Amino acid sequence: MSHKHAMILLAFIVLGAVSGVFLGWYKPDTAIQISWLGTLFLNALKMTIIPLVIASIVSGIGSLGNLKKLGKLGGLTLLYYSLSTAVAVFIGLVVVNWIQPGAGMQWSQSEVPEYILEKQDTGASDIILSLVSPNLIASAAETQLLPLIVFAILFSMALSTLGETGRPVFQLFDGINEAMMKLVIWVMHLAPLGIFALIAARLGNAGGGEHFLSEMKAVGWHVVTVLTGLLAHGILLFIILLLTTRRGISYLLGMGRALVTAFGTASSSATLPLTMECVRENGISHKTSKFVLPLGATINMDGTALYEAAAVMFIAQAYGIDLSLTQQAIVFITATLAAIGAAGIPEAGLVTMVIVLSAVGLPLDGIALLLSVDWFLDRFRTSINVWSDSVGSAIVDRLT
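Request: output the structure for the sequence above.
Response:
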């Protein structure tokens, strides 16, 4: 897609997002009726995820030539993702301790959804076990990307040892990858209408603008805290990008379609096809983007990690529980690890937050405090997740 065409499409996507806010705000019933348009767009994106992830990883590793280069690429990728997630959690803790959003808060008890309570026995071993699937077809059906990525990496490594025998297989996946990227470009033309419907329908389901504002007022300082932390982390990533790669505003604008789509869908996984296309158009090498981005969409959840740290501290403050530095250190560690286990799907942060709350002995009922605005904050933290992946691909590409 040409730069001019991309900028025009970005303008229409932004217009669609803004129009969706207005329709959902003032005409919630109408917004709900057109929700199927958003579902259609989201399904079209999800349709491309599994073949694109597998093909891109196999093709990307094949383009490296040997396993030594994979070791360097993988090492730098994991190092960046680990550091960026840890920094995000640290920023979340700093901001929530500064603003103190839950101090003196009055709230009424409400019910925590069953799907969240079911996760209260989840531990570190479950995250490790999720790396390997006994049934890849079932994992694909449930869009569980992490075991598919592990398999694709191992499969590619095995192919690399076969020499000429493995070359035709790599070429096959090269063709599949190129075909999927072409399909992504076609799907992108549905983005303005799809994002318009997704945002409008979500606001409509929230009861429209007035009802949404009343919910925001109840936990307004929590919203301010999370958005402040996310903004600070996003700016920090931009500065690191600028200093490391000399890329700046042009790179940010080039990622605009992916970032707005992330806001509209609230799903890192669903946005992955657009993220890969935007990164390609920004001049990042294929061998880097094919490996870094699928992995990032699964394990690099900076926005989610920051949100979990801030939300857990908010719950503690709302209950009048003063967490010690040791307990906050536990929050830091568990939020970082839990974010890695968070699938790139809507509201995954609420599910993995159970792990963090349990680690410091806070009541799970506190999650009910967050439900009314979680869908709203989810969109911002997903955008930061995608932005971090994009910055990571540029930095790793520069260093390799």
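The radius of gyration is 21 Å.
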